Every structure is written in structure tokens, then in C-alpha cells.
Amino acid sequence: MRATLLKETIKSLFPITRTLCIEGAPGGGKTTIVHEVAQELDVPCIERHMPTMLVEDFGILFPDGDKLHYKLPDWFPVKGKAPERGILLFDDRNQAGPDLQKVLANICQARTLHGIPMPDGWMVVCTGNRQSDRAGANRVLSHLRNRETVLELETHLDDWTAWAINHGVKPEVISFIRFRPGLLHDFDPQRDQNATPRAWVEGVSDVLGTVPAEAEFECFKGAVGEGAAAEFVGFLRIFRKLPNPDAILLNPTTADVPTDPAILYALSGALAQRATDDNMDRFVTYIDRMPPEFSVLSMSMAVRRNPDLANTQAFVKWSLAHQSVLF
């Protein structure tokens, strides 16, 4: 299930508080999606990292006169004390052992912890890798599995592109992934390092421009693997030798239009980054001279970055001229 559909599905199931487990290869953004859903629903999200928890983290016995009572952890949302609605997120649940899974199974079904109920409007969501990913995932107990709906997250290029533009990922990285979409999530458990959405954002985009140029390849290799890093560094050389996008937008009718696909992907991202209300006419003039697929790519990236551009006369004119490609 692609990320956009997964988010809408979580929102749809939230009113009935059906327990969910989101599974997929490491680095796909499972945890991020849950937090974004909570933000969009305007509800709190309490996250617990299951592999670092002990059974005692779910409550300990303490004496109260001649009886023993459980003292609950401060993170557990107690009915009558916590907000009426929220998401209780157990991250990397599949790495937890059987004892922790047994405690979690009761929370999912009875919606209580040692007899203390959660508010009626709280949803339990777990995330986890699959055993086939060899990322430390254990077998999930069958009775716990029967108490949840399992949804598998699939990485989708357009969904990631939209997210990346909205979250400030460097245009060099976005353009490269559009050029080599197979490297967005190229996960092989046999390799030490893998190209994943998380690695491209945190290990490449965030690092780009902060380390010396001589160290870039080694840093990128340490995040996405040698093969992906080598391809990206080659693409980066092209990106850095592009005609000046500002000069292109000053002379959109006479500036050269490259023919190399790699250069066109890089130029599409660079131009989209510079599109504004003031230069929209010139932006459209130039991308109209590009091959149709790159014209559409440039415009879609520009509008995702700044939705107000869709209200300009230049955009309306462009969209009418390209409706056969868009629809």
C-alpha cells in the first residue's frame, strides 16, 4: 500500500480505533507516517520503542497495605486523565520478544493495562520490519496477530517526491531519484548499507553541502551503499555543471535546451526550485521547449513546492496546452 493510501486508511480506521500494524522494509517511513497522521488529525501520539523496553516498563507491583497494586508507567494514556483521542504507537514491535508481545496483545484487545482502561478514542498502532528483511524481526505471536490489521507499506516514487518537496529535501536528491527511481528503496539484507528513503534524506540530503566535496562520496557510501553513492556523485557533477538556471529564466526563449536525459532531470529540479509568481511566465516559456515529460516534471515539482503557482495565469495556460499529457 502506497503512503498516501496508507495515511487515508489510518484516518478512516481511527474512529473505530482498530489496532493496526504497519510493516515494510527498513527505512521506508512507517513511523513518520503515523506521526504525520496524528498531526493531521490533531491528536497526540505517544511513541514507545519496543526493542528497548522491558516487561517492567509496562508497570510494576508495589505494596499497598496488605495488597499489591500495579504502578503504571507515566506514558500510558489513562481514561479520565489523558486526552479523549490519540494514537499509542509501538515502534519496531516485531523486534520485541514473546513476553512483551503478550502484554501488548492485552492492550490491543482489552484496551487496558493491568485493568486500567485507555480512553475510548485512542488507537493502537504498531510498526515493524518483516522477518524476510533480516532486521531483527521475531515471529509475531498468533493471538496478537489475530487482534490487529496488518498493512504493508510500499515505497512509491510520486508519494516520496511530494513528501520530499514539502520537507525541504535537496533538489539534487529529488532530481536524481526521479532519474533513477529504482534506487529510492533498493534494500537487500545481504548488503551492509542500503539505499532507502530514510538514508537518502538523513544520510545524503542532510549531509549535502555540510562536508568537504572530497568527503562526499565516502559519506554517501556510508549511508546508501557504494553503488548508489557512485551514481549519485556522477549525477551531482552534472547538476553542478548545469547552465545557470537564473540565466535560463532571464532568457527563456534563447537558452539552450539539453538533450541528455540525466541533464534534463537535473535541470527540471533546479528550475522548479526557482519558479516564483514573478517569473512564472518565463518559467513556462522555457519548460515548453523541453520534451513534454520533462515539462510536466518541472511544473509538478514547482507546484508541489509552491501551490500558489497553480493560481497564476501562466499555469492555467500551460495546463490547458498540456491536458493531453496530464489527463
What does this molecule look like?
With about 325 residues, the chain is an alpha/beta fold. It has 2 domains: about 5-150, Rossmann fold; about 155-325, no CATH class. About 45% of the residues lie in helices and about 15% in strands. It has 15 helices and 9 strands. The strands form 3 sheets. Strands 2-5-8-1-9 form a 5-stranded parallel β-sheet, with helices on one face. Strand 3 (about 60-65) and strand 4 (about 65-70) form a beta hairpin. Helix 1 crosses helix 2 (about 30-40), helix 6 packs antiparallel against helix 11 (about 260-275) and helix 7 (about 195-205) packs antiparallel against helix 8. The longest helix has 15 residues, at about 225-240. The mean pLDDT is about 90.
Q: Mean of the pLDDT scores?
A: 91
Q: How helical, in percent, are the residues?
A: 40-55%
The number of helical segments is 15
Q: Largest sheet at a glance?
A: 5 strands, parallel
Order of helices and strands: HEHEEEEHEEEHEHHHHHHHHHHH
- Portion in strands: 5-15%
Number of separate domains: 2
CA radius of gyration is 24 Å
SS-based structural class? Answer: alpha/beta
Q: N-to-C terminal Cα separation, in Å?
A: 23 Å
Give the overall form: elongated
